[in-house]
């Protein structure tokens, strides 16, 4: 039987475990499960790992574990994970409140015009789906989300903005996401969340993890302001519902 | 003398507080940061009587090309390593790679590096900047860690303890990094990376034969190499994956970039090679305009070279420790983790 994964070299202190060729929830599930298993039951000498769409980068100390020995142990782990569940095995779902349009979503009219939908329909469709966090990267806490409604696909801005405020929710091509911190960026901004996806000073600085589900929940500007002031947390206390 | 720190009089173009890096956060998108030339940084800490390894190694200052001028408000033992900056204490020349005593009010001036790019200033006890996510390193792009999450400015005062006992002045060590002979390019060893297979033999041979010039666009994220374009068989785009330190990434225009401690944690360009750990200090010390070529070695060889380099460094830090503590141990140095 052909193994459903392969190892790729990544220098003498890392190895890539590739579990598939495509952006696929089942493949990503396997990667997330392997990462979780390394956290729950560490292999001595393994330092840390990075989940991406279809592979896990495993960094190790070559003084403590050999490259081939590590591959054998990782392979054993992968097989013992067995048939990792189908796509719906999201570990948890995080509700992210979003105020769509207005000053928070200056590009919402453009997205509506491009897609031929009304502004309300864009917001409705964007918040009607459960997204999957495939990986965290690019910047601290930035989630790469899968599951955008095909009808909402809109190209990036021809010229990126120099500064996008933290919390901005955007669409770039077939991707959607939330900017965890102020940064330049070329996505079309359709709204903003008062929830902090990233807080350097907190014990748990990054809200989302690979494998999480994400739902965007429309809120009014007034609710946005109350959440931001900490007066109302609604169901978004930690943003987590199981 | 009032105050309890190091007062920055002239900050240099890019001086930041760094320790050995922020670990365990890659999966959350947080790059490690930390001293780029980890060997020089470890020797600086050891010379200043500090832990040289692991998460307990205290913060130093990393200076880039042109160093700081600064006044010690407290008595200390300090050491400067890495790039060869001319050093003076109260106008009198002093040596790099040597522990030096300074009194309150003494002014240290670090000049323009004659060779190398990054120098490290360590003080006994380290700079007392707060830990953020387990590390005192500055995360420049996101503005946290180190000293207020930013590069130093004139007038900043970096808190530091006054020197305790058990740290001696006059301890010296020789640098670990060998500079290439005059007129020769740097040779940087690489091991195979995850997307080696996306490049044909001709492209790889050409890449390894060519000489590259360090681009002035280089920074703590990565060293950009100007030279012949490297072209993959089906372009250079991949499904984004994790980036190990030293990864040689090929952009769509064919330009190689060696990714360093402030890199993005995930990227969408092919990585045919990874610079071996033992040669990452070279990537920290190359200057814009210098020439460089890559040499491919096996992963097994990379591992052997890495162990030898680690053993050599451990022997040096051990020697420094012995001189500080006044005990001489012959033979039998031990390896230290971290």
Summarize the structure.
The complex is a heterodimer of chains A (242) and B (338). Chain A has five helices and 14 strands. Chain A is of the alpha+beta class.
Descriptive report:
The complex is a heterodimer of chains A (about 240) and B (about 350). Chain A is α+β, with helices and mostly antiparallel strands and about 240 residues long. Chain A folds into two domains: about 5-80, Gyrase A, domain 2; about 95-240, Cyclophilin-like (Cyclophilin). Chain A has helices at about 25-40, 65-80, 110-115, 120-125, 220-230, and strands at about 5-10, 15-20, 45-50, 55-60, 95-100, 130-135, 145, 160-165, 170, 175-180, 185, 190, 215-220, 240. In chain A, strands 5, 6, 7, 9, 10, 12, 13 and 14 form an eight-stranded mixed beta sheet that branches. In chain A, strands 1-2-4-3 form a four-stranded antiparallel beta sheet, covered by helices on one side. In chain A, strand 6 (about 130-135) and strand 7 (about 145) form a beta hairpin. Chain B is α+β, with helices and mostly antiparallel strands and about 350 residues long. Chain B folds into two domains: about 5-160, no CATH class; about 185-295, Cyclophilin-like (Cyclophilin, Beta Barrel). Helices cover about 15% and strands about 30% of the residues of chain B. In chain B, strands 12-18-16-17-14-13-19 form a seven-stranded mixed β-barrel. A six-stranded antiparallel beta sheet of chain B has the order 7-6-9-4-1-11, with no helix packed on it. In chain B, helix 1 packs parallel to helix 4. Chain B is globular and about 60 Å long. The two termini of chain B are about 40 Å apart. Classes of the chains: A alpha+beta (about 240), B alpha+beta (about 350).
Topology:
The complex is a heterodimer of chains A (242) and B (338).
Chain A: E1 6-9, E2 14-18, H1 25-40, E3 46-51, E4 55-60, H2 67-81, E5 93-100, H3 108-115, H4 119-126, E6 131-136, E7 143-146, E8 161-164, E9 168-172, E10 175-178, E11 183-185, E12 188-192, E13 213-218, H5 221-229, E14 240-241
Parallel strand pairs in A: 5-13
Antiparallel strand pairs in A: 1-2, 2-4, 3-4, 5-12, 5-14, 6-7, 6-13, 8-11, 9-10, 9-12
Helix pairs in contact in A: 1-2, 3-4
Chain B: E1 5-10, E2 15-18, H1 38-47, E3 60-64, E4 69-72, E5 76-82, E6 87-89, E7 92-94, E8 100-102, E9 107-110, E10 118-123, E11 157-159, E12 186-192, H2 201-209, E13 212-214, E14 222-226, E15 237-242, E16 247-250, E17 256-259, E18 266-275, H3 280-285, E19 291-296, H4 299-325
Parallel strand pairs in B: 12-19
Antiparallel strand pairs in B: 1-4, 1-11, 2-3, 3-10, 4-9, 5-8, 5-10, 6-7, 6-9, 12-18, 13-14, 13-19, 14-17, 15-18, 16-17, 16-18
Helix pairs in contact in B: 1-4
């Amino acid at each position: 039987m052909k193994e459903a994964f392969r190892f790729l070299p990544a220098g003498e202190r890392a190895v890539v475990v590739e579990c598939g060729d495509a952006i696929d929830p089942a493949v990503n599930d396997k990667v997330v499960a392997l990462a979780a298993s390394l956290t729950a039951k560490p292999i001595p000498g393994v330092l840390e790992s990075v989940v991406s769409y279809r592979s896990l980068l495993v960094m190790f100390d070559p003084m403590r574990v050999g490259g081939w020995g590590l591959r054998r142990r990782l392979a054993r782990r992968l097989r013992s994970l067995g048939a990792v569940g189908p796509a719906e095995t999201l570990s948890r779902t995080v509700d992210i409140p979003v105020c769509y349009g207005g000053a928070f979503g200056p590009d919402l009219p453009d997205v509506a015009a491009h897609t031929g939908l009304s502004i309300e329909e864009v917001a409705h469709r964007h918040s009607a789906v459960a997204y999957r966090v495939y990986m965290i990267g690019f910047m601290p806490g930035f989630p790469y989300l899968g599951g955008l409604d095909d009808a909402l696909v809109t190209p990036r801005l021809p010229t990126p903005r120099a500064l996008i405020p933290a919390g901005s929710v955007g669409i770039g091509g077939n991707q959607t996401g939330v900017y965890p911190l102020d940064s330049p960026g070329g996505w079309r901004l359709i709204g903003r969340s008062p929830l902090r996806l990233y807080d350097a000073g907190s014990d748990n600085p990054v809200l989302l993890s690979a494998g999480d589900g994400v739902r965007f929940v429309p809120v009014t500007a007034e609710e946005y302001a109350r959440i931001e002031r900490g007066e109302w947390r609604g169901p978004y206390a930690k943003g987590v519902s199981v | 003398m009032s105050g309890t720190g190091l007062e920055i009089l002239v900050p240099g173009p890019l001086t930041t507080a760094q320790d050995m890096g922020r670990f365990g956060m890659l999966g959350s998108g947080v790059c490690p940061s930390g001293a780029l030339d980890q060997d020089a940084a470890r020797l600086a800490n050891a010379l200043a009587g500090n832990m040289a390894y692991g998460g307990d190694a205290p913060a130093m200052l990393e200076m880039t090309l042109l160093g700081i001028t600064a006044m010690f408000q407290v008595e200390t033992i300090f050491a400067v390593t890495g790039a060869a900056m001319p050093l003076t204490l109260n106008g009198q020349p002093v040596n790099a790679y040597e522990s030096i005593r300074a009194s309150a009010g003494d002014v240290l001036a670090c000049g323009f590096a004659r060779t190398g790019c990054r120098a490290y200033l360590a003080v006994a006890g380290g700079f007392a900047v707060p830990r953020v996510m387990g590390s005192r390193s500055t995360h420049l792009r996101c503005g946290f860690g180190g000293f207020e999450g930013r590069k130093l400015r004139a007038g900043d005062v970096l808190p530091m303890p006054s020197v305790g006992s058990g740290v001696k002045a006059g301890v010296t060590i020789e640098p670990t990094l060998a500079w290439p002979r005059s007129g020769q390019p740097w040779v940087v060893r690489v091991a195979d990376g995850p997307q080696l297979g996306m490049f044909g033999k001709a492209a790889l041979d050409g890449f390894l034969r060519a000489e590259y010039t360090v681009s002035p666009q280089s920074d703590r994220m990565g060293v950009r190499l100007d030279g012949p374009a490297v072209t993959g068989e089906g372009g250079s785009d991949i499904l984004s994956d994790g980036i190990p330190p030293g990864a040689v990434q090929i952009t769509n225009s064919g330009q190689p970039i060696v990714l360093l401690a402030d890199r993005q944690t995930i990227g969408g360009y092919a990585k045919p090679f990874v610079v071996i750990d033992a040669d990452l200090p070279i990537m920290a010390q190359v200057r814009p305009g210098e020439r460089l070529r890559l040499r491919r070695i096996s992963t097994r060889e990379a591992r052997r070279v890495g162990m030898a380099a680690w053993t050599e460094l451990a022997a040096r830090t051990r020697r420094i420790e012995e001189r500080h503590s006044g005990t001489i141990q012959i033979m039998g140095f031990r390896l230290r983790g971290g």
